[in-house]
Amino acid sequence: MHFGFGFKSSTLLIFFIHGLVFTGLLIYKGIRSENNSSFWLASFLFLCSLYIAPFMFGYAGWYGRQSYRDILFYVPFQQLFLMPPLLYFYVKSLLNTNFTFQKKDWIHFIPAILYAVYSLVIWITDKIVLDEYYFYADGRDKDLALWYQVSGFIMMVFYLFKCLKIYTQYKKNTYDTVSYADAILYAWIQRFLIAFLGLLLIRTLFFILNPEWANFGNKYWYYLSFSILFYYIALSGYAHAIKMLIPFQPEALNKTLHANFLAEASEEKTVEVIDKSEAEITPADEILMKELEALMTSEQLFKNPSLTLFDVAQKLNTHPKKVSNVINKGFKMNFNDFVNTYRTQEVIKKVASNENDLKTLLGIALDSGFNSKSTFNRAFKKQTQQTPKEYFSKKSY
């Protein structure tokens, strides 16, 4: 096949193959778990693999051979209008598993559909109608045209910001709703989105400072960086897909929690309208605060590692939104931090009573409601401004 296995072509080939492998694995996991987010991610990774293909083939010498050029020119490898909405719907379906694709969502794919029609017209004109190069008379792949690359760049930046906005709202809802927020935040998604956005901005900077960087041979390091990023989301996304197959994971419970929270919060007929800008604590708020404190102290609900806002609201016989509002307004914190405050105090109390002579500090933390060492360390430092080791080394019990 005369594929030139040079350094550049070979490194991109490795990522290309891995992208296809993870695409197949995610489709398989999606079928097994009936998880739509796996299908969205599989589609995105497949297009990421195709995205680096022209440069992989170019560095391997295929674009310099006429027999290969005739085929490669007409394959729309770089789907710059299709990748952004696929990433967007992956993030939406991952953070809200009750999400279903609606007819109105097709509007996001109109640019990709139009470009597919454009590519088809070019192929029919050059290969069937004229049987000669017309659109490709200049010998350049239309996927690399400036107008298309710039439009795709703008579209990707736009959707990356949309994804970050969705994640920010998800993060807020999580901290306001569950006491095990750290376990279900999917922080890798935020890191990937920010890194991806940074990579695009670096690409723009290089283009402005060095216009020759746009030449085919000078883009290798950008495409290598892109490959590493999409490989990162492939590994992280696949690891998450495996977790979804294991029963009784916090992620599974979280699906229902967020769906219920958003649904209940939107029922204006059953919920008293609360002005969040109102800083004053009403007498009713004070009563609810005392009931909440008494409940946490007497029944020690915080020891439940899967405690949710709905559990507490049910105990208080009130609406979750009212409980969330009084915690935000009265205690100046979210639900997750509110519960972790009691857990941290419980750990300190148990250590003070020399319970750590019988159990490890981690064992005490788990008994107090924390679900992992990392969550305990983060929450403890947030409450005391010191790590557990620093705090207890200064105390003498």
Could you give a short description of this structure?
The protein has 397 residues and is mostly helical.
Keywords:
single chain, 397 residues, mainly alpha, Rhopdopsin 7-helix transmembrane proteins, Arc Repressor Mutant, subunit A, 2 domains, elongated, HTH_AraC, transmembrane, transcription, membrane, transcription regulation
Q: Report the average pLDDT across residues.
A: 84
> Shape, please?
elongated
Count of distinct strands: 0
CATH architecture of the largest domain: Up-down Bundle
Low-confidence stretches: 245-257, 259-277
Number of helices: 16
- The radius of gyration is 27 Å
**Largest sheet properties:** none
Q: Fraction of residues in helices?
A: 55-70%
Task: Report the CATH C-level class of the largest domain.
Answer: Mainly Alpha
How many domains make up the coordinates? 2
SSE series: HHHHHHHHHHHHHHHH
% residues in beta strands: under 5%
Kindly report how far apart the N and C termini lie: 75 Å
Class inferred from helices and paired strands: mainly alpha
CATH fold description of the largest domain = Rhopdopsin 7-helix transmembrane proteins
